[in-house]
Design a protein that fits this description.
Blueprint: E1 6-17, E2 20-31, E3 35-39, H1 46-53, E4 61-66, E5 69-70, H2 75-81, E6 82-84, H3 97-108, H4 114-120, H5 136-147, E7 154-158, H6 166-181, E8 185-189, H7 193-199, E9 202-207, E10 210-215, H8 217-226, H9 240-248
Parallel strand pairs: 3-8, 3-9, 6-7, 7-8
Antiparallel strand pairs: 1-2, 1-4, 4-5, 9-10
Helix pairs in contact: 5-6
This protein binds adenosine-5'-diphosphate and magnesium ion (MG).
The site of adenosine-5'-diphosphate has 11 residues, from strand 2 and helix 1.
Amino acid sequence: MKEDAVIITVENLTKQYGSFTAVNGVSFTVKEGEIFGLLGPNGAGKSTTLEIMETLKPKTSGKVTIAGLDVDSHATDIKKIIGVQLQTSGFYPNLKLIELIDLFAGLYNQPVNATELLAQVQLTDKANSKFKELSGGQKQRFSIATTLINQPKIIFLDEPTTGLDPQARRNLWDLIRSIRQKGTTIIITTHYMDEAEVLCDRVAIMDAGKIIQLNTPDKLIDNLVETGFERPKEMKKANLEDVFIHLTGKQLRVDD
Ligand code: ADP
Ligand code: MG
């Protein structure tokens, strides 16, 4: 991994749905090997921005390059080097995990070691379970596994931890870190700020189609504190989530 090498550039990106502007002149770069977070309220334009980078949606204007390839002219080449997480509703519920992996490998025309892939996401003992039999956390881990089949340079994860319990969420953070450890660049959206803080190297905060801040979580927090901001009341040394994790443990559950 080259230090600070840019792998994605987005310049003045705009997306209009009819007369409505969902993404309004957004520019940013993503560095090779980083975990880059897109944050913002519902409707901010995060998924639209992601889908344009994934070549799944046409843009209205602006320029987007993925590993030096322009989304306008090289969509097919881009698809070969990226991994896109499907909504978990997109999997055939009655197929076994091992069958689903074979199906994807066929679609990508890519040989894949299914056992190794399942081990990477801690689903070895579920290889012969049907997708519908998995818990929420397991489904998310499996859908992340499918993004890795074509050994992509970049993966896109749109709210991968939404709806998961605190343990399953932490388990997914470990998985995401382990994928990055291998040199994969990760673009992630999340509504959990604690998650963005521990996981992301840099975050862009979007609102109403624009990026209003982009920096490391640390720097964004320092900038706010410098304005004189203080939390309204003294925080306790732990919160209810700490209690939950302390009482129920961090380790992976049989059914999470
Ligand atoms: P986010 O992921 O940040 O919640 P989206 O990118 O999904 O935001 O949506 C941004 C805005 O664009 C929202 O107001 C949404 O309703 C609108 N939008 C998204 N997809 C479509 C579409 N296919 N047609 C019309 N409007 C859309
Ligand atoms: Mg979205």
